[in-house]
Amino acid sequence: MDAVSYDARDQVAVITLSRPQRRNAVDGPTAWALYDAFKRFDADEAVNVAVFSGTDDVFSAGADLKAFALGEQTNRVVEADDVGPMGPTRLQLTKPVIAAIEGYAVAGGLEMALWADLRVVGAGAVFGVFCRRFGVPLVDLGTVRLPRLIGASRAMDLILTGRAVDAAEALAIGLANRVVPRGEARAAAIALATQIAAFPQTCLRNDRRSALDQWSLTWDEATAHETRLGLATLASGESAGGASRFAAGEGRGGRFA
User: Fold this and answer.
1) Distance CA 113, CA 197 (A)
2) Count of alpha carbons within 13 Å of 221, Cβ hemisphere only?
3) Phi first, then psi: what are they for 78, rounded to 5°?
4) Contact 97, 116 (CB under 8 A)
5) Per-residue pLDDT of the chain (257 residues; tens, 9 = 90+)
6) Beta-bridge partner residues of 100
């Protein structure tokens, strides 16, 4: 069975990591397969959102340390490139990714979850920098994304202690966006992806781009960047079309869909 599968339907691509014998840990070939799958998603005009999940009730245990211990070329650091040690973690996609997380999302698996735009989490999920105890660094932007996502103080706690974080705490600190009953994360993530995929996409992607890009910009630069993207959306005609639908009664009474 392939370690990574790609299934596209109804404007949603489902990308699945399957190495159950290694608790979905990622070796070198798997990292490249994940990278290729997400590059395929970004180029696939038939889909608007990706759902990223693992099999066997595990998201990912991180890097395959058994392969690393045997001297296999596993999660290498690639400088000045868009390939991360875990595969897709340095990619800057034009479309959103939702991680569907069951079981363990730890070490590099946590970093892949942080790379996603949203995280839908089963009630039995566990997060953590479990690589702390083995001297394996966070090199898939975990030290960058985690403080930005949950705040510097909470991130430092997790980075220094390597402790486990359950689904309830993950939701409370902003690491999880949704918590659903155990075993339902994949279905809930697909439902959410289908909803997002149905929205006008030029506006959605430009607003997403502005929110991501602003981290590296000054206030004035971020303001100008948002304005440029907003004007591009307006020029596309998408906003005028939406305004016409609203004027014709769509959304009346606060109905969202």
Assistant:
1) 20
2) 6
3) -115, 115
4) yes
5) 699 999 999 999 999 999 999 899 999 899 999 999 999 999 999 999 999 999 979 999 998 888 777 666 554 555 558 889 999 999 999 999 999 999 999 999 999 999 999 999 999 999 999 999 999 999 999 999 999 999 999 999 999 999 999 999 999 999 999 999 999 999 999 999 999 999 999 999 999 999 999 999 999 999 999 999 999 999 999 999 998 988 888 877 767 66
6) 53, 120
